[in-house]
Amino acid sequence: MPPDSLPPPSGPSPGVQVAVLSDLPNAGTACAQGRHFVEEQLWRWRVPMQVADTMVLLASEIIANAVRHGPPPVCLELSLHADRVRLEVTDSSATPPVPRRPELEALGGRGLFLIDTLAAKWGWHPRAPGKVVWCEMPIADPVLPPTR
C-alpha cells in the first residue's frame, strides 16, 4: 500500500502525550538509542506489548533510513493518542522515501517494505530543510492515564 498523503499535523491535540529525542547521532548508535527511547516511553505510557514491539521495529527501520540517506540532524518524536501511537523521524534530506520490493538475496532494502507491511498507516511530508517520515499503530484497548 502506498504511504498516506495526509497533510502534516498542525501540532498535538489536547490530551496527546509527546516525547522527543533530538539530534540522534549519524552513526551506528542512532538505531539503538532510538529503539531504547521508544521502548522505554511506550512502557511508561503502558502501551500494549505487541504494539510497542512493532513500534520499536518500525522506529529502528525509519531511523536507519534517515541516518543512511539523510544528513543530520535526525530527530524522533513519539506521540500517544487515545487510540493510536504515532512515530515521526525528521532528517535534513528532501528526497522522498521510495518503497521497493527487495530481491531475496539482497542484504538490504527491506526497511520501507517492513514499514509498509507492519504499520497501520505511514507516510512522509516535507519539513524544511528536509522531511518527516511517520507511521502509526492503533491501540486496540485505549490507554488509560496513569493514576496518581
Quick overview of this protein structure:
The protein has 148 residues and is α+β, with helices and mostly antiparallel strands.
Account of the protein in words:
It is a single chain. This protein is an alpha+beta fold and 148 residues long. The chain has 3 helices and 5 strands; from the N terminus they run βααββαββ. Strand 2 (74-80) and strand 3 form a beta hairpin. The longest helix has 21 residues, at 49-69.
| Fraction of residues in H or I helices | 25-40%
Broad shape? globular
Strand order of the largest sheet: 1-2-3-5-4
Structural class: alpha+beta
How do the SSEs run, as a string of H and E?
A: EHHEEHEE
DSSP E strands, number: 5
Overall pLDDT level: 84
Gyration radius (Cα, Å) is 15 Å
| Number of helical elements | 3
Largest sheet: 5 strands, antiparallel
List keywords for this structure.
26% strand, 148 residues, alpha+beta, 3 helices, 5-stranded antiparallel β-sheet, single chain
